[in-house]
Amino acid sequence: MNNKERITKYKEKVNDVIQKMIYELFKSQPENYIDWMIQYLESVRFQSSKAFSTKIAIEYNLSSEEEENEEVDELPLPVKNAKTFRSSVSAEVFGVHNKKENFIPRVIPKTEEQKQQILEKLMKVFMFQALGQHEQEIVVNAMEEKHYTKDDWVITQGDDGAELYIVFSGELDCFRKMKPTDPEPKFLKKYKPGDMFGELSLLYNSPRAASIQAKEDSVLFALDRSTFNNIVKDATIKKRLQYEEVLSKVELLQSMEAYEKTQICDGLKEQTYQKGEVIIQEGEEGDKFYMVAEGTLAAYKDNNGQQVEVLRYQPGDYFGELALIHKLPRQATIIAETQCVVVYLDSNSFLRLLGPVEDILKRNAETYKKFIQN
Ligand SMILES: Nc1ncnc2c1ncn2[C@@H]1O[C@@H]2COP(=O)(O)O[C@H]2[C@H]1O
Q: Which annotated residues bind 3',5'-cyclic AMP 1 (predicted)?
């Protein structure tokens, strides 16, 4: 490429950003347009960094023609040509258009019994678990009961999304066309009572990434975009961004789909240990699976009263799976060698979310079979 061509290409790139910014600016007409533009450009910088694309990494639409033959599950930025599924992610993701101050939550009348039933289901969904009582009440009040008969489509891939759903009763199937040219969508998963879906387009202001059909008569509770935005969206995005980086270092999870990894992020809890603190004690019952986010740790086994070091862990490593897979007592004591940050899943979430890598876990566990008591 000669210098003239380079400048032309450069101009195109700069113009593209400026034109989009002006378009968004005129659309929202903020009073303080300088602050708005700074915020917008920061969001674009964040958006176009590689870190961002792997972090948001929720591209369930398709990208450019060159990639047309690949199954893409990352977010291609910026938006490309008309042959693709619509893939834009609005600046709303970054809070530019979020006007929280005017939020008046909707209230759909319900009996106390209905409220209790909704709350019960809500508390099984990770992203609602951390809510305070007042926020829980707002969400429960805003939920709308919806009935679908067998074969009804609840969500159609490519549509705009206005609600997320929690399954109260019934069963639904999730399908997705991986490429616009696919004749048939691929079956992805089933949804049963207590499951949640339809959150992606609310989180990232993107088109529906998959289609969902009732397999039998089903009752769902729908939460509107405005309540979702004001109560759970920021915390969920923050958590996903924060932990996707931690999970990206865990080799075990590399074969998992981006969407499955986001589900793990939602379920993670975090704990810090000081140097010398015991995270797991040999012989005890185990109910958590850990991944190392920061610091180093070591595993010791008791050998006639002597503690013998058998393994070391660093960021990206995991431990605590044996007790959960094989229902064994803890096979080693794990101690923090430095100050450590670990993220963990409880045993139910571990068994549910790590199903796709169970074989790898079992295979890897073979390597320390020699340490396991008969
Ligand atoms: N692999 C997947 N990729 C994208 N969406 C998925 C996947 N599995 C389940 N879904 C759900 O399907 C929903 C379709 O609507 P949304 O894009 O709003 O949110 C999506 C997710 O809740």
A: 199, 208
pLDDT of residue 270: 94
pTM for this entry = 0.73
- DSSP E strand boundaries for 156-205: 163-169, 172-176, 186-191, 196-197
Tell me how far apart the terminal alpha carbons of the chain are, to the nearest angstrom. Answer: 66
What is the Å distance from ligand 1's center to 60 Cα?
8
244 with 57: CB under 8 angstroms?
yes
Q: What is the ipTM metric for this complex?
A: 0.93
- In CATH terms, the fold of domain 101-233 is Jelly Rolls (2.60.120)
The Cβ of residue 238 has, within 10 Å, a number of other Cβ atoms equal to 10
225 annotated as ligand-binding = no
**Ligand 1 in reach of 204 Cβ (< 6 A):** no
Domain boundaries, the chain: 11-98, 101-233, 268-371
Nearest CA to ligand 1 atom 6: 210
Task: Give the closest residue to 84 by CA, choosing from 206, 180, 200, 186.
Answer: 180
